[in-house]
Amino acid sequence: MARTKIAVIDDREDARKLVASVIDDAIANLEVSDEWAVIDSAPLSTMAGYRGWVTKEKIGILIIDERLGEVPDATGKTANYTGSDLVSVLRKQNKDMPIYGVTSYPDDTSLQEHFALFNEVVKRDDFTAKAAQYVDRFLRLYKNFLDSNEEELSELSKISRKIALGTATAAEKKKARAIQESLEIPLTTLALGSRKEWLDEYEKTIANFKKMQKDAKKFLKKK
């Protein structure tokens, strides 16, 4: 089973590698390496690309720098958006996903204007000095994020079985799609060729989602 990831987005390779490194150490110290991993990435070429990237990489927590357009990427281009711009876009589909700002400039004007969109904004030096405590907090919030979606997940489960049996109404299919998009569950609900194919895909995806909940609860029992 693929591990859920904490992703670090920063245009400066040395800075993001450092943050990723201390997170990796914290994951090991918290003994959750079988459940969590960390990746780092330069800013994507467009903000629209993050939605598919978050799903593909199984991102559970995002850590974003504010000034993303200072250093060119491998193609020589710089991001034309800030961390605050990115969070504003991400929040349209990921309303409750844990998203943190880790920056050397916490008083940046744009960052302060969008402060409420982040779960927390942390000064980079403070984060690297207390990474274990911050990562512990991040994982607890992620567990709460999963728990808050349990009701919707339960409703999706009921509707999904109706879809698989061919008894779902148009309104129920629309509701399933809305929940799917809200939770960022990568199901092609109405596009699969057969009810059995859809049910197989549904069962696999829901099992992955429930495992994330189980892993989060398992982590808390260790505390």
Write up this protein.
The structure is a single chain. With 223 residues, the protein is an alpha/beta fold. The protein contains 9 helices and 5 strands. Strand 1, helix 1 and strand 2 (36-41) form a beta-alpha-beta unit. Helix 6 (131-148) packs across helix 9, helix 7 crosses helix 8 and helix 7 (150-165) packs antiparallel against helix 9 (195-221). A 5-stranded parallel beta sheet has the order 2-1-3-4-5, with helices on both faces. It has helices spanning 13-29, 50-56, 83-90, 109-113, 124-129, 131-148, 150-165, 170-183, 195-221, and strands spanning 4-9, 36-41, 59-64, 99-103, 120-123.
Keywords:
223 residues, alpha/beta, five-stranded parallel β-sheet
Question: How are the SSEs ordered, and which strands pair?
Answer:
Layout (H helix, E strand, L loop, with lengths): L3 E6 L3 H17 L6 E6 L8 H7 L2 E6 L18 H8 L8 E5 L5 H5 L6 E4 H6 L1 H18 L1 H16 L4 H14 L11 H27 L2
Parallel strand pairs: 1-2, 1-3, 3-4, 4-5
Helix pairs in contact: 1-6, 6-9, 7-8, 7-9
* Helix and strand run: EHEHEHEHEHHHHH
**Contiguous runs where pLDDT drops below 50 for at least 5 residues:** 186-196
Mean pLDDT: 81
Number of strands: 5
N/C terminus separation: 24 Å
Estimate the strand proportion. Answer: 5-15%
- Alpha plus pi helix count: 9
Radius of gyration: 19 Å
In terms of structural class, how would the helical and strand content be classed? alpha/beta
How are the strands of the largest sheet arranged?
2-1-3-4-5
The shape is globular
- Helix percentage range: 40-55%
Most strands sheet: 5 strands, parallel
